[in-house]
Amino acid sequence: MAGIYLHIPFCAQACHYCNFHFSTTFHSYRKEMIDAICKELTIRKEVFDNQSVATIYFGGGTPSLLTNSEIDQLFDAITRNYNLGDLKEVTIEANPEDISMDLLKHWRGKGINRISLGVQSFFDDDLQQMNRIHTAMQAEHAIRMIQEVGFKNFSIDFMFALPLLSNEQLIKNLERAIAFNVPHISCYNLTVKEQTALLELIKRGKIEELSEDKSIQQFELIMGKLADHRYLQYEISNYALEGYKSIHNSAYWEQRPYLGVGPSAHSFYKNSRTHNVRNNKKYINAVQTGSPFYDVEELSERDFFNEFIMTRLRTSKGINIRELELLFPKYVRAFKDKTSDFLRGGQLAFFGDEYRLTKAGKMVADYVASEFFEV
Length: 375
Fold this sequence. Notes:
Helix content is 42%, strand content 20%. It is of the alpha/beta class. Helix 2 runs parallel beside helix 3 (101-110).
């Protein structure tokens, strides 16, 4: 089964750390953008050959800025063009300041059954420093409304290693989420990326340099605290109570096909990856005039192997050696040879047929994965 990702490139305000594709000046072409995304959904409906779509994910950007009528228009385009007979999960990313009872009720009525809420922190100093619009009080109010309307399945995002976030405050953030009985929590390490306001603020001395030691300490605290409260760390950054793993995101880590629509969206299907143009006006014009609006990258066996290693090692399942032998027989011997150093060093453990990262391994997950890559 396949998934559909819709990139909604609208944001009311730019967060200092974000380098995703978005625009804060979208109002003059808002209708044209929604029309173009709907047209792309129609143009590319054959990519799945009528294969069932299991998940839909509204990401961005800030999809919670969509009006009810825009949500209706996008859903109409999907239902007209895709087989939704086995649809299991429909997620929408949302910011706390956008949440209202009317919006939530409309989402439920359209079939949205999961919300990913960008809380980031329950401390206003953190939110202000990162240029978030909402307050901690708004975040708590949004969670209460989500629960009151009847959403059982929802997630909140936290960031850690923020310059102002102490270890004690981090624990309080987690305890607040636990007290709300939030079923899914995503925790992302703040990193400095190119072409962000955060990078410029650090260069000018307005925000202190990020601390690697703090990142390690807080990552350890998160893993321990959430494990104590029955949250499974099923992927490096994602923790879920039983029954609440993200089906859509899990499909990415298992190399299942998905179609990404909207400017800058990526897709993966039929042994290839496509990359939509990363410019709103160019995307709209190309879609509407029938011009090319995405590049195609054909993936080699080596590409698939490296992606398999990178994504599977990040998950709690790890790498199943029997599956590896079936999918990539020519690379198995080299893989096994490289595991010995990590097994001795304590970064990997072997359970039955599965190689999994240990707690120490999770601290250096990208490095461990890269050591197995075929070049």
